[in-house]
Amino acid sequence: MTGITGRLSEAFRGDQGVHAETLVSRLDAVRRFLDAVDGQVPDSRLVAAHTLVERAATRLSLSRDHTVVALAGATGSGKSSLFNALARLELSPVGVRRPTTGVAHACVWGPLDGANRLLDWVGVLPRHRFVRESALDGDDESALHGLVLLDLPDFDSVQRSHRLEVDRLLGLVDLVVWVVDPQKYADRVIHTSYLREFHRHRDVTLVVLNQADRLPPAELPRVVDDLRRLLDADGLAGVPLLATYAIEPAGIVGLREALERTVAERQAALRRLAGDVDTVVTAMGELVGAQAPGDAPDQATVRALDRALAGAAGVPAVAEAVEGAYRHRAAGATGWPVVRGWRRLRPDPLRRLHLPGPARDADRPAESLVAATSVPDPTAAQRSALGLAVRQVADRAGDGLPAPWPKAVTTAARSRLGDLPDALDRAVAGTDLGLDRRPVWWRIVGGLQWLVSLAAVAGLGWLVLGYALRALGLPALDTPRVGEVPLPTLLLLGGLLAGLLVAGANRPVVRWAARRARQRAEKRLAAAVAEVGAELVVAPVRVVLGRYGQARAALRDAGR
Ligand SMILES: Nc1nc2c(ncn2[C@@H]2O[C@H](COP(=O)(O)OP(=O)(O)OP(=O)(O)O)[C@@H](O)[C@H]2O)c(=O)[nH]1
Ligand SMILES: [Mg+2]
Q1: Residue 367: its pLDDT value, please?
Q2: What are 175-207's pLDDT values in tens digits?
């Protein structure tokens, strides 16, 4: 019996092989993925990916000339017997009392030196390391040079420590030979807990049905077929399946050949890691989903946020004050001089709000200022409208993203809410409300008012002088007339009338210009406030969406 019943010609189907550079760049992509999701996804969900990155880096830095092969299986399946048969030495005790092997044993074909660091990392104690290098062997063993064969404890042990040790080692080795025997090959544990879990490592998995000598020859093909069916159901279709028996050298010829081929290819370590990357990429896939992120919340949502921010920042109140201040100042500059004075006594609506704020007064960077204006605090309604708008931004941005991203987006949107009140106040204080310069037409109308008032005063003076001369019996002044009306009277009445007319005609113009000033200021304030929203609410959301995009791209690269 040669013991080969599997499709050995197809062994480790990756005919094209795994390129080390490709593997390294896929691992880099996993690393980029981890960087991108850092802080956004709970660490507990990233353990497998972190473990892979670390483990792969170490394995690749250690000997690539060695292939670490583990014999794994249930107790009594004959792992130690196969180990000894392959080594042609009695290295690992074979016993009647089960389980026999408690810690991993290793046999190295070729010099031990190169393999020692590998075995340190794998965690095989030095006293359980053996070398298969003997002058007596001649070239017999040279085909296996580079093989590091491990005999593992059983995984179905009554000893919990065995199972833990097996699980640990199975995560590190390059290739696993699953040893089953005719009695227990269908046991549930090996299929559900191990073989099924290994379906992404088909390229580095080999199954042997040991103790084939115990079966009647006619029975063997039926058992092998049955086992093949079970393996197919485990997702391991196509893995090499060999029948072996450890009691004679002839019974392990097929296994030996398979191992020789594996060692010669030097692909197992790379294939193992590539399979690990596949597993991680699939597992992490649910963290990034199929949906690409939008680059930001949509325009309408941002506009709603800006409106809510404007309300909370008191923009309508400030804009109203700007209109009032414009009228106040325009009236001061262009009103009838007779009543201008008492207008000045009335307070300027903007100054009442302490605007413009110190940011513009002192020419200092706005960030260095604490809240300084006396704009009224937002009402409860404005506050809740703002909370709602922020939540809306988060909801929209996180819409359709897989967990935990929507939560991360919400956290980001709210992350700087505490800074908002001061930032909004600074934005309002720092906005140029457009009232600094006095319009030219104010000066023209103001000049005109002075001119007509001067005329009225001159007329009045002239008349008073005329009355005084007459009262003192002095010769009267020669008073010129315009038509029937004496010039001084014309000056006085004309000046007064013109002043009132100019003031009257100017009023609607001032009202119109004040409304314009309000709109202009409102626009500037809205822009300043929107900038605050963009910086404190939208930007943090964008950062998270950016991370999501990076994570998605990195995982796509890792999957290639
Ligand atoms: N007939 C026959 N007996 C075998 C074969 N392989 C192993 N045995 C016997 O089966 C028993 C168990 O063998 P071990 O090699 O100790 O089995 P193991 O898988 O290492 O067991 P644990 O160390 O307990 O996990 C021993 O009595 C062996 O002699 C085989 O191919 N044919
Ligand atoms: Mg054993």
Answers
A1: 46
A2: 999 999 999 999 988 999 899 988 888 889 999
Q: CB of 210 closer than 6 A to ligand 1?
A: yes
Whether residue 311 contacts residue 560, with contact meaning beta carbons closer than 8 Å, is answered with no
Under 8 Å between Cβ of 293 and 51: no
Other C-beta atoms within 10 Å of 478: how many?
5
Distance CA 127, CA 106 (A): 9
Angle between helical axes of 380-398 and 539-558 (0-180°, round to 10): 10
Helices (H), ranges, 234-377:
253-265, 268-288, 299-313, 315-334, 337-345, 349-352, 358-361
Asked if residue 96 has its Cβ within 6 Å of ligand 1, the reply is yes
Six token digits for residue 164: 């833990």
**Nearest to residue 176, comparing CAs of 145, 211, 143, 201?**
201
Q: How confident is the model at residue 340 (pLDDT cuts 50, 70, 90)?
A: confident
Q: List 4's β-bridge partners, or say none.
A: 242
Distance 81 CA to ligand 1 centre (A): 5
* Choice from 1, 80, 178 to test ligand 1 binding pocket (greatest atom count within 8 A of CB): 80
Contact 452, 499 (CB under 8 A): yes
Measure the CA–CA gap between 486 and 484, rounded to whole angstroms.
7
Strand (E) or helix (H) holding 68: strand 67-73
Structure-block tokens of residue 161: 């420590």
* Backbone dihedral region for residue 298 (phi beyond 0: left; psi -120 to 50: alpha; all else: beta): beta
User: CB under 8 Å to 441, separation ≥6 — which residues?
Assistant: none
User: Which structure tokens are listed for 155?
Assistant: 């995984």
Q: C-alpha angle 445/449/453, rounded to 5°? A: 170
CA distances from 275 to 150, 270, 555 (A): 20, 9, 15
Dist. CA 468–CA 475, nearest whole Å: 11
Say if residue 126 is preceded by a cis peptide, omega within 30 of 0: no
Beta strands in 386-474 (DSSP E): none
| Tens digits of residue pLDDT in 13-56 | 445 689 999 999 999 999 999 999 999 999 999 999 999 999 99
- Is the minimum distance from the CB of 84 to ligand 1 under 6 angstroms? no
